[in-house]
Amino acid sequence: MSYDEKSDISLRLPARTVEALDRIAQVLDRDRSWVMWKALDQYLANEGAEILRDAHGLDELDRGESVALDDALEKARMIVDASAVRHPRVG
């Protein structure tokens, strides 16, 4: 499905949520569907994307595609130590 294609869905919401959507739509001179689309789009870009990243990470762990904690900590120590040599603190 392309980005421009649309599908109808049915959604049951609390009356107060629908009223808020209608108030926002009226203020913006848009229809309720547009307001709902913007809200869902923002959710998918933020929380939804985080959920998908977490799921991807869990899938990698399930496949054994991970780094040992000790190896990761050693790499972090090396980076910090190298930075300390290049940028000594004065003070």
Topology:
Elements: H1 15-28, H2 32-62, H3 69-86
Helix pairs in contact: 1-2
Explain how this protein is built.
By secondary structure, the chain is an all-alpha fold. The longest helix has 31 residues, at 32-62. It is built from three helices and no strands. It is elongated, with a radius of gyration of 24 Å.
Number of helices: 3
Give the overall shape: elongated
**Oligomerization category of the chains in this entry:** single chain
Radius of gyration: 24 Å
Most strands sheet: none
Q: What fraction strand?
A: under 5%
GO biological process, one term: regulation of DNA-templated transcription
InterPro entries: CopG, Non-func_TypeII_TA_Antitoxin, Ribbon_hlx_hlx
Organism: Rhizobium leguminosarum
Pfam families: RHH_1
Task: List its traits.
3 helices, CopG, mainly alpha, Ribbon_hlx_hlx, 91 residues, Non-func_TypeII_TA_Antitoxin
Brief synopsis:
The chain has helices at residues 15-28, 32-62, 69-86.
